[in-house]
Amino acid sequence: KPLNSLGYRDNEPRNSRHVILFVGDSFTAGRGLKSIDERYSNIVGKELNKISDKYTVINIGKSGVDSLGEYNLMKQFSHMTKIKPEIIVLQYYGNDIEYVASEYGTKFEGFKTYKDVRHIFKPLIAGSYLLNYLYWSFPREHLSISYINFLDRSYKNKLILTKHKDELKLFIDYARDNSAQLIVIVFPFLNDVEMSDTMYVNEIADYFRDNKIRVINVSPLVRDIPVADRIVNKNDGHPSIKVNKIVALEILKYIHQ
To answer: What helix, strand, coil percent values describe the chain, rounded to 5?
Structure first.
């Protein structure tokens, strides 16, 4: 909560001369945070309007969408509301390549649940609310290995990466065509920054920089923070309140007041 009339976890969108539009997935929507006031988008809005109540911050973050989905939602939002943002803040995460990867031949076969449980006990755990709850109360790191390998293959595939960059170029062109400033936040997997940097963070950050887009690379901002303080909790890898605050401060540096 709140959930507005357009289905976004935000207040009702309000038009003004100075709109900052936050676009992304569950990281932007604030998954795992109890209040929207804890999100980096809302922190940015609050800090800006301490000085001058001229900025309108709108968040259209949507859980589960990839880059193309985010672009389509942004276009749909603009068409429905006639709101033209002055600044677009695009959030990027490692799974944004997933759809285009599946379209061009790299398939993820799915998570193999209960792989660490003896076969005889699987039906018992799966069929019991209590045992299932206890089982999932602890991180199951083995589940992520196959998915990480899938993403790694995708970013190493030149065709897939090229097609994915074509998707990202849509945001660059849209911002330029609409005289909007584009700021891109690149998040690593917060439980493994070094792996993320090698897999995709440096590649994606460099792509936007090469296109003269301002980039906030979250990796160096969180590298020295203990993992437990970076994420919502041990079973939820979304950014903590602390990380949201850090990201908000970086965004504020790029916004001309």
So the answer is: 55, 15, 35
Q: Three-class SS of residue 255?
A: coil
Closest CA to 92 of 73, 65, 58: 65
Is the pTM higher than 0.70? The answer reads yes
3-state secondary structure of 62: coil
**CA distance linking residue 165 with residue 25, whole number of Å:** 17
Cβ-Cβ contacts under 8 Å for 6 (sequence gap 6 or more): 13, 60, 77, 80, 81
- Bridge partners of residue 90, in order along the sequence: 23, 184
With CA atoms as reference, report the closest residue to 63 among 8, 13, 141, 144: 8
What is the secondary structure of 195-227 as a DSSP string? HHIIIIIHHHHHHHHHTT-EEEESHHHHTTS-H
Among 213, 186, 210, residue whose Cα is nearest residue 200: 186
Residue-wise pLDDT tens digits, 51-73: 777 899 999 999 999 999 999 99
Residue entry with tokens 């999100």: 39
- Both structure tokens of 117: 């449980």
Q: What is the average per-residue pLDDT within 179-184?
A: 97
